[in-house]
Design goal:
Largest sheet: 12 strands, mixed
Number of strands: 12
Radius of gyration: 19 Å
Strand content: 25-35%
Helix content: 25-40%
Distance between the termini: 34 Å
Structural class: alpha+beta
Amino acid sequence: MVSDPSRAALLAAYDAQLREDSEMASADAFDRAGPLYRGVFGDRGFVTYRDLGGLTGSALDDLIAQTVEHYAANPQIKTFEWKTRGHDAPADLPGRLIAHGLTPDDLETVMVGEAKLLAQPVPLPEGVTLRRIDNQPEPRADVERAAATLERAFGHGFGAGGLLRRIEQRPDLIELWVAEAGGEVISAGRLEYVPDSDFAGLWGGGTLPEWRGQGIYRALTAARASSAADRGVRYLHSDCTAMSRPILERSGMIPVTTTTPYLWRR
């Protein structure tokens, strides 16, 4: 996917700053196994790496098998994700993961862009307003409303409890923004800062179906970008769906690679 110098530079920054340690910043615990970082997040496991150190063939099969055994031996783990990127080697890794019982989830595009370029104001429909809700004295009710909106937008559960715990534990690293109309949350999304890096991430952005196509998600992206730029963040990144990609591209983000989670379930 990388075909020009600007994409190459953004991908290099992504690989150097957003893999391994930064992905384990909020883990309950993690350890190392060869090139892998193996994290525990509640009842979920998460595997990442910057590269596989040239492992191929039977040596790679052994590492995958050891990883499955590692998580299977932990009774609290219900599922774990092995996060792959489209530009990683070897090319036959996906097939080897499937052979060891992991199943691919949806492919997403990794988007990266300059925060200051994304922070341009976007007009909102009449009656729609934006605000940050995590920094309120009592954010629970607002966070629960945002989680309910995201559940409607995506068709699956978004636990308000887990999000509230993360906000309470590291309020310096997460912001939650919403768009509202008539007292109803119609769109929501997170901004998550990556410690000791030039990056913040755009996560969980979703808009109710009846409000889509009116620029609300782009406005929510711009508001989060402006907040990040005010804190000195250089780059924003997002793993986005096919629905979100054209919106983020119009906002100025560039596709640098793809990512596919491979999932093991107990």
